[in-house]
Amino acid sequence: MASGPMSVDSSTKEPPAEPGANQDEPKYGGYTRFELELEFVQSLGNPQYLNHLATRKFLTDPRFVAYLKYLLYWARPPYLKYLTYPGPTLKHLQLLQEERFRENIISPELVHQLIAEGMKAGVEWHQETETKP
Amino acid sequence: MDKYLDARFERVERALASLIDSITKYNPSEKLGEELIAADRELAAGLQALETHHNNYARIQQLRAETAALDAQTKDIIGALWAMRKEVKNTHTTVYAASGPKYQFTTAELLDYARRISSTTLPPQAAIIGAADGAAATAGAAGTSPDADDAARSSQGGQTPTASFGATPVTAGTPMGGGGQAPPTPAANGETQTQTQSQTTVTSTFTELPMHIKPAVNLGEGAVFYPWPVEEKIRMGALSTVDYLSTHGIDPRGYDPEEEEQRKKEEEQARKEAEERARQEREEAERRMHEERERMARERERSRAEAERRSSVATGFVQAPAKAQFTFLDGLDDDDDDD
């Protein structure tokens, strides 16, 4: 299972370079830091993955919390446009900055609620705009 | 109009006067009476015309009033607009502090992004109806008892092993075994259900496709839309590769599986080439040895023939030193000699 973030060098405070910017980018298992962090930040959109991270005690690790803070660079250009699941990704990234959310996500009730709300929103967001004249 | 009517009245009066005259002279004339009737009819027609005239006039008056009212209204509106414009121009807009930093982007970029995320943010049509029901159902269930929801999901089958991924199973497959009562009911499923309901009274459910064929004819069957990457995707991603490498004792830093693969291939190639070379050398050596043996065999044959010839010429007189040159074929020569 991808426990990922801790195995990647996350001590760097600078966001990774955009793809194509630097060919000599060091690779981790064949992937650049940009690719790995993009995948990880999007995986955070999955409530079950959050729950999984919580059960593995990642969310209480101060180093991991610092990493989550560092990941906020995905909320601004030029990185923003690479998110293919922008809604849940940014929502959960924002929520994960709150200590209370990091503590509560371990409960299955909250996971269920997030899933239900997320799926409802995923379907309804464009129907609302359709019904408007 | 007045003259028109006056002429008619005059005619009636004249006709009446002449008739009265004729009556007072005790000489009533039929002609005069008819004249009076004709004049009276004319008058009646004239009065009719007067009525129409009055009506028309009233209509004209009404229209004029309407026009005036509309003019006034238009003027009012324009005046109001002017006043409004003046007001708007004089209003000072409140400048709100920006809630966050603003970034510049072009329409092309925006459209490009919209196209790119459309497949991951816009659910397919089949999933919309199903997920809307499902979301409502799960929302209701989550409020009351999440366990019931969980059970409903489990009954759909096709769930993935979740030993390390939290308690909730991800319903990734189609609800083939579970049946249509599962919360995310797709559109086609709903239609067939209503069809069967309407037909059960008439015939049996012949139009209902078997459960295992349904997904084949309708790709949207049982489709569930998740607005985030599903577990399978996460499991197949780059992070899991890194995880796999680190659990197998390989430092993922600077390790590229593709390059490794390439390197291995090259090594394999080199090894094969070396083997091939060794094989060729071995074959060459074997061939040479073989030739040597053949050569020796031929020589031996020749010498034996020579020996035989000599012995036949000498008739039993065999020279001992002739044997000495074939030292390693002693045994054979001895046999020959014995014969």
UniProtKB/TrEMBL annotation, chain A:
GO biological process terms, alphabetically, are: regulation of DNA-templated transcription
Major localization class: nucleus
Q: Superkingdom, according to UniProt?
A: Eukaryota
- A Pfam family found in this protein is Med31
Q: Extract the ranges annotated as region (Disordered).
A: 1-28
Q: How does it assemble?
A: Component of the Mediator complex.
This chain's protein is named: Mediator of RNA polymerase II transcription subunit 31
Q: Which organism is it from?
A: Lasiosphaeria miniovina
UniProtKB/TrEMBL annotation, chain B:
Q: Low complexity compositional bias: what residue ranges?
A: 187-204
Which stretches of sequence are listed as region Disordered? 138-204, 246-339
Q: Where in the cell is it found?
A: Nucleus
* Annotated Basic and acidic residues bias: 250-311
Return the GO cellular component terms, semicolon-separated. Answer: core mediator complex; mediator complex
Family matches, as InterPro entries: Mediator_Med4
One GO BP: regulation of transcription by RNA polymerase II
What molecular function terms (GO) are annotated for this protein? transcription coregulator activity
**Composition skew (Polar residues), residue ranges:** 153-165
Respond yes or no to whether keyword Glycoprotein is given for this record: no
Q: According to its UniProt record, where is this protein mainly located? A: nucleus
Task: Report keywords, A-Z.
Answer: Activator, Nucleus, Transcription, Transcription regulation
Specify whether Mitochondrion is a keyword of the entry. Answer: no
**Complex formation:** Component of the Mediator complex.
According to its UniProt entry, the function of this protein is described as: Component of the Mediator complex, a coactivator involved in the regulated transcription of nearly all RNA polymerase II-dependent genes. Mediator functions as a bridge to convey information from gene-specific regulatory proteins to the basal RNA polymerase II transcription machinery. Mediator is recruited to promoters by direct interactions with regulatory proteins and serves as a scaffold for the assembly of a functional preinitiation complex with RNA polymerase II and the general transcription factors.
- PANTHER family with a match to the protein in the record: MEDIATOR OF RNA POLYMERASE II TRANSCRIPTION SUBUNIT 4 (PTHR13208)
The Swiss-Prot or TrEMBL record describes its family as follows: Belongs to the Mediator complex subunit 4 family.
Instruction: Kindly provide the name given to this protein in its UniProt entry.
Output: Mediator of RNA polymerase II transcription subunit 4
UniProt source species:
Lasiosphaeria miniovina
**Gene coding for it:** MED4
